[in-house]
Fold:
Amino acid sequence: MSTPSPIRIAAVLSAEYRGRLMSQAREVNFPEGARIFEEGSRAESFWIVRSGTVTLQIPLPTRRPAPVENLGPGELVGWSWLFPPYTWQLSAEAMTPVRSYEFDATSVRMLMDADPAFGSAIGHWVGRVLALRLQQTRTRLIDLYAPRIATAR
Structure:
């Protein structure tokens, strides 16, 4: 038996706030291999996975992108939409066909500003996601580069 992710929307937001957020959603699908966003591009939307797998990646200049994390149902794809300058810090690719809910970032930020309690709940959720992703990115970079550093000595 697996433990539900502590950052999935259902585990973090109350039913009221989930409903308010979901009122802004539209359903979108991505075929396997679709690039959802690229590092450095404008973060104007974000997604919650309904089904399928999205892989977050670190682009590398001389090699294929390094996978950081695989995201599945109920998980947030993207956090850069919440923080200026609203630019993606990673890239994302659909590893399988993906069904998702898409949200317009500007509209959600306006809702957050209009209701500070809702804004705080969304901000805390995204903050938890960001903290976990930072930890996973750090682990992935150590996996990629620590063996090279050790053998170079």
